[in-house]
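User: Hello, beginner here. Can you help me understand these amino acid letters and fold codes? It all follows right here:
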Amino acid sequence: MIVLCLACGLVAAQEPRGGAESAAKHYFTDTVLINQNGEKMRFYTDLLQGKVVIINSFFATCTGSCLPLNRNLEKLQAGLGAHMGKDVHIISISVDPAIDTPEQLKAYAKKVNAGPGWYFLTGDKQTVDFVLRRLVTMSTTRRLTSISSSSATNARAFGRKLLDWLKATS
């Protein structure tokens, strides 16, 4: 599953004044996940707020579609060039947090040549499941656009659309 979240930046720009919590922050919450470097990251504030993100779920020991999917994201990362980590971020969330420790995720990130702005996340099962449920629920609304990227052709087409969007909004 890949989800492109265009609304996070737009919603963040419309946050209420006076310290009131935005609807996006309230929905996604600041659930804490752990990245491939062992750092704690708040899901909304650190990873989504004000950003364009591509989110996928995977597990590092997957012998099926996970590695090809992440190889497509690797190609997308290369195609984004200077936009990667600045204008666009990739968030890969492990669906097997008991096995996928930060050390495992760091090795996996190295395998797919992940650069700055690509986060591999884990946590305890309950926390990871909560975040994934929120994403699945949200992907059925108009705030997120779900795009299947199971082939290199789809990844290239998606990358072109994303770059066109970035140019149009710059």
Notes: The chain has a mean pLDDT of 78. Residues 2-11+25-155 form a domain with the Glutaredoxin fold (CATH 3.40.30.10). Helices lie at 7-13, 23-28, 43-48, 66-80, 102-111, 125-138, 152-169.
